[in-house]
Fold each of these.
Amino acid sequence: MTRKFDPILVEVIKNELAAISEEMAIAVWKTGRSAMMKTGDFATAMCDGQGRLIGQGYAAPFQLAFFIEMMPYIMKKYGGNLKPGDVIVTNDPYAGITHMPDVAIIAPAFWKDQVVAFTLAYSHHTDIGGRFPGGFSSQCTETYEEGLRLPTLKLYDNGKRNEALLETILANIRVSDEWLGDVEAKIAGCWRGEQEMRALLDKYGLETYQSSCDYLIDYAEKATRAALRAIPRGEYVHEDVFEDDGFGSDGVAMPLKVTLRAEGETLSVDFTGTAPQARGAINLPLSMTKATVFGTVKSIVGQDVLTNVGFVRPINVVAPLGSLVNPRFPAAVGGRAPLFFRVFDVLFRALAKALPERVPIPGEGGDVLHFTGQKTDGSPFAVMDIFFGGWGGRPMKDGIDGVAPMSFGSYGTIPAELLEREYPLVIDGFGYVQDTAGPGKHRGSTSIYKQWRFLQPGKVMVRTNRLLRPSDGMAGGQPGALSTNILNPGEDNLELPRKAHMHMEVKSGDRIYHVVSGSGGHGDPWVREPEKVLIDVKDEKLTVAAAREQYGVVIDASSFDIDWEQTAELRRQRLEPMAAAD
């Protein structure tokens, strides 16, 4: 007898699966060791028994997308050779992961002696061995330099831990106790997911669960095709250049090109014309390129549509082998983030040419300070502090300050108290930088600054994602301000070289001041409502002088009142020459 489709039951199971992923995330968060784990740099998700990502996950869209790329490698190697208690570990950039510090845990979930699901948990680790602490420097030339590559191995086999494998891994990690603590947290999350999956199967049975998975995947495909039909047919091209080969060489200008071909209910995303792979480690592995594409497309698809294998079916990605966005093995990829953020920017701007009233300017940030050394008791430490500037201007709203880009989901900012308690450093300052948001009818996000003071000598790497050119505006909006790195501000006041990844040694008492670039604005800034300009002045995001210069809004510096007569005259003087030119 064919089961009658029950839309309410499917919705209930969809939300129960989401709840399971949340339970997994709570287990990971509560038990993780590193500062990054405690503030959201991880993801959890679930696949069905066929290895198909079904969503909903505690994850950003691009994270779910590279889970989709990873699972075929798992199924090919272990699909018919799995037992209860198995746990698989991988960080292979050439098998679905995006660089080696990202370590994924995959565990099969059994119900009545049958694999019914896979639980997944991934996070970025503060070290993975290799030439440079952290494993994500751009200054490597092949993957063998970047750290310990784990090609989909069983860490647990039938419930028994592979001690030889674990000892080998830990012998190559600078902060082995923290690495192991984070891995065990992810394992705990996966086991929690299996426990909840068995309860779900006990409640609804295998047939109902499997048919619901099929429906959720098919629905995501249909909804994505419907969203793609809203894109006018045609080709939409955007080009840019990337200015760092991984070593900060002068005069680098590597072309980035994407062509979107809207073909009704399908979309082809073609990177032909993008530069060949770089010698340094700024290349994007194919999994990351696809994840970036899928994360961009998700911005125009309804929130209720799960990022699962059905969602990606109507999207075809063309990335020439040997290019920046699909390098040949053993190209180094650990420092891929600055290029990744730029590819996101190119994709959003190409999509905005097709849907100008819907697509925003992507956010800025993801800048990092990585600090390693020894504490006063001689024990090693490694800390990675990541923070974001915020969203760019949107067609109908301002950008949002100080948050991760919309495709990044759960990433947070590590509290100063946590950093200062766990590591030998002090946060001297953290906040907005005035007059840095890209002006627009809807302004971009302001720059965010952070200043670290080091209490112990050590090695520092600073990652900066916007180097020589600012985040441009759209539809008449203006660029945001560029990033800045200064060593010992006010004393040496040494402005550091503009490199994607900059390495240096610091001594006790040294300080680094870092500013994340501002985001571009959307629309003509001289038609922005003066009341909104005044709010930014009162919030100390904009000076009185910048309000006049950038927006044509005259504000009395003593009373903080708008001088409406002078504002109208100033804007009239600007508009008359423009009208005459037309």
Amino acid sequence: MSAIEIVFTILLNIIPILVISIPYFFIKKKIIGKLYGRILLGIIVFYIVYWVLPIVFQLETAPIELELQSGEEENTALGIGYIVSHFLSLISLFGSYPLVTLPFIFLVAPFISIVLVWNRLRKEKSPTKESLAALTYQLTESPYNRIRDELKKSDWSREKEILKLLIVLLPISLFLLQLVLSITNLETVSLTGGETALGWFLEILFVYLATFIFSIELLFSSQIALKGRYFGESIRTQTYKSLYTVGAPISILSIILFIVDAIQKGSTESITIIIYFFAYFIMASVIFVLFLKIFEPISILIFIKIIDWWKHRKQKKKAFDTKNFYYGIVFACLAFFIYFVLNYVLFSPVYGFIFPNYQVIQESAKFNAPGPYFLGDSLGFDVMNIFSFIALVITSLALAAFFLVLGFKYMRSILTAIASYLPVLIFLSALFVSLELSALIYLSPDTYWITGQTSYTTIFGFNFYTLRTAGLEADLRGVLGILAVPYTYTRYIFNIIIWSLIIHYLRKEFKTTNLKVDEKHLEKLIFSSITDFITIDDYKKGDIQYLISKSEKVAPDVIMSEREEVQTLLNSLEHDKLLKELIPFEEKEKQRFYFTLKYLFNNDFIDILKPEFSYIFERVEKQGLYIIYDDGRGIFDYTFVREVVHDAGLISGMVSAITSFIKETTKSQDLLKTIDHGDITIMLEYGKRIFGALFIKGKQTSEIRARLKEFVERFESKYKTVLEDWSGALVHFKEDHSMVEEIFQE
């Protein structure tokens, strides 16, 4: 290669990345910019593994020429079109991860987490039913708000920890996989062609491994607690510690065995392949952690909804509404019909027009296909990948998810909608597949995976080196075929479910309220906003505890222009109220009030929310709150009970001394979280430079601990600059009583 060829090859290959990077610098400070940055980073990693790394492993193989046909010589537009289509094909392959691969992980993990919760409950001395009733969890904001808040933090600590664990476990997993291949007589062949079960199954292996790890993470991020103690955090810590302790040395041993095996065979090619698969696995892991905070909120919601159903399964079974069951059947048939029309009226004719010789293009795209190779065919195969992604993934997923969301809306039950909609969709898809027709759900497993083959073309007047998109066939037989079934045959179905839930919940607002159960217990209800006004039947029955909230969009001058009845009602909603607290007693007034509510709702004066889930927790008496600097100096204190007054300086010194003493004597790296003394409990939560101590009368609950943790985080965030090098002046923190009252109010 000449110097000019090297320069222009690098430039032309990197231009697409530079182009899509430009918008990030204009929006990086916005929430959409934070999301775009994660997607951009994922694309870059994907680009390196799919478009750069294969070149390194094919240095000993002469690049194939992408020949030009008559009239194509020095056709710059064709060359630019090839670069653009090739990059968009790469984007399509990348897009299959968040749209197809990752949803499997984030939908299956909550069910594995439930198994872990059940195993934890079995260890309790009290009956499982009582322990189940004592479970609490923290979800007080909508998935959208949680995603926004997590992206704002720009904290990558969890992602780094998960990525490190996945990398530690990779060599073991890969070694076991190769052992299975050897036992089942499936060859691991080179990157230069042939069938490769190892490469194709690697994606499935990653999915299973990531699903297990994320199920552990869910216990931690949902802040699930039993009798006031977070057990998810301890399970996560113990599991990670065990995996690191055992996994690290075995991983090193696995790598050594790979090298020894290659030396004995007298070939370095197997080492090259393993390095490539390592890179592929790391790429998948990076994409997984990049999208973690995007998908995690909906997984937490699914996890908690399952626990809530488990807690109240008897009532839920009685309340299971089947009267609108037919909606699911109708929507499934409608979705399938629209896709059928789109496919055979639009997609198929357009596909046939653009690719009249599509079979020739597909055959030429095989990694080890006999030449000659033409630039036009390579461009055509990239366009085919883009077209297939739009038709088979985006369009089918959008249609199926849209009609399932309609099912949620009209059937007023997520479970009923899924139970009636998906079986029909699966049946119709299976029927069409058996008839060798295109189906809305892609049930057939892939039998190949995409890679790149070193190539060059003279379209620009010099040798331009690149990677043409090529396919490697994969044949999963025996054990691997069986292991692949749970993923290959369900992932498209799971995509529909999770994306429907994301669409359904994305713009919903969440609110919470506490209801008094008895003198010692409160019930926490978590509500989500509704988009359609409640039916007259639901209103009259009064079975559902709707929450009425005054909309923040309402301007005071608009209220003043309304009739007196409306003004009175809106003024009474300065604080959220349950619908049953507002309904008049007289029958005529009840009906009149219903239409008044409907008027207010339709004009965005009020928001109406319905319960998503609830739990009962023990009421505690809060006595004093103390914020302490990491060197033991008191920063801030607040007294909840006037009769109980503690010396703030004495408390700060005592708590600091106890925590230091226990850490020194036990040599434990874990932080002290609770100090019990008779009927008084001191709860501790830690920030980066401060920690909070809350004195309560009675036993701790996860509810009160969550509030303490929230206060510590908000306090530290508010005074981040001051706390970095605190001089000891207390004047900065005197006006935070309102924050205490806001967070700790019942």
